[in-house]
Amino acid sequence: MRKLLPAALLASLLLPAEALAEAWEAKTMRAPLSAREVERPLIIGKGWLEIGVGADVKQAQGYWGPDGEAIDFDDANWLYTRESLNVRYGVVRRGEIYWHMPVHYLRLTNDKLGTDTSGMYLGDPRFGYLFEVFRTDAPLTSVVTRFELKAPAGNETPGSYIAGPGTFASFVTTTGTADALVGLEARRQLGIIGLEGGAHYTYRFSGLASYLIETENNSFNARIKPGWVLDANAGVILQLGPVALKGGGWFETHAPVQIGTTSPGIFPDQNLEEVAGSDGWSAGVSAGAIVGATRNVDLVLGADIPLRGEDLMFFPIEDLHPTRGNTYSAALEFRF
Questions:
Q1: How confident is the model at residue 15 (pLDDT cuts 50, 70, 90)?
Q2: CA dist 139 to 17, 187, 238, 259, Å?
Q3: Are 225 and 255 in contact (CB under 8 A)?
Q4: Rounded CA separation 183/35 (Å)
C-alpha cells in the first residue's frame, strides 16, 4: 500500500485532469439516440432495446372489382384487427435485429343471412435484420438495407369440409407459405423536415395449405405459391416540438397466385398453374403522428387509406387480396 500511494500522487501531478476524469468516469455501450423523430436514423442504434405493443383496426366497407373499382358490401360487415408485439435491438453499430409477432381478432356479420362468426387467431411472425450502409449527422442522412423472413404460423384450417361451406367456423390468417424480403430504405433531414422512402422485393415460396383441397387428382391437400411482390413508399416528416407529423403514399404490384399439385424432384412447384386475374396492383396514402418528449417512450398513431385495390379472390386471407377499408393504428414504444 505504501508503494502504491507515491505512484498515485505522481500520476495526479503528471497526467492532465481531463485524462484522469475520462479514465474513471462511467461509460455506456449505447449509441446516441435523439428524442426528435426527424433526427433519428432508420436503425435503433447499438445497445438500445425497443419493445412496442400496438393494434391495427379496419372496418371493411367493401371490396375492389376486377378493374380496381370500389364496390360496397350489400349486407356483410368485416372487422379485421391485428394486435402485435414488436421487438427491436441494436446488436452492432450499424446493425439491428427485429421481431414482429401478430395476433388477429376477426368478425364477420351478415344480418340478412344471420351470420355472426368471430375469433382470435395467431398471425404470421416476421423477423429480420437492418444494416446501415451510409450515415451522416447534423443533418441526418440514413440509408439501410432490410432483410426479412416471414414464417407460416397463422391459422390455415377454416373448419370441416364435409357439410359444405356453412360448417366453416374459423378464419384463415396465413398464406400457409414463407416469404423472404429484401429492400432499401433512406431518410434525409432538412431542418425540421425529413424525407423518407423505400422499395422492397418479396419472394413468396410455395407450400401445402390446409385451406386448399385438390379434387381432380385426388391428392387431398393442394400447393399454393403466392406471386412475388414489389412495393415502394415515400413520405414527409414535419417535426413540431415533441410531435412529428408524417404523411406519404405507397404502391404495390404482385405476380399471379399459382395453385396445383406437388411435383416430384427438387422443385415441388412445377405443376402449379396461375389463377387468372390474381395479379394486380394497389396504391394508397397514409398519415400519422409520433408523440414523444423523451427518447424512451413514444405514442405512434396512424391511418392508412387505400385508393385502389384488387379483386377479392382469396377472402379472408388479407395478405393476398385485402378487403376495402381504412386502417387505423396505435402503438406504444418503450426503449431501454
A1: very low
A2: 33, 11, 14, 50
A3: no
A4: 26
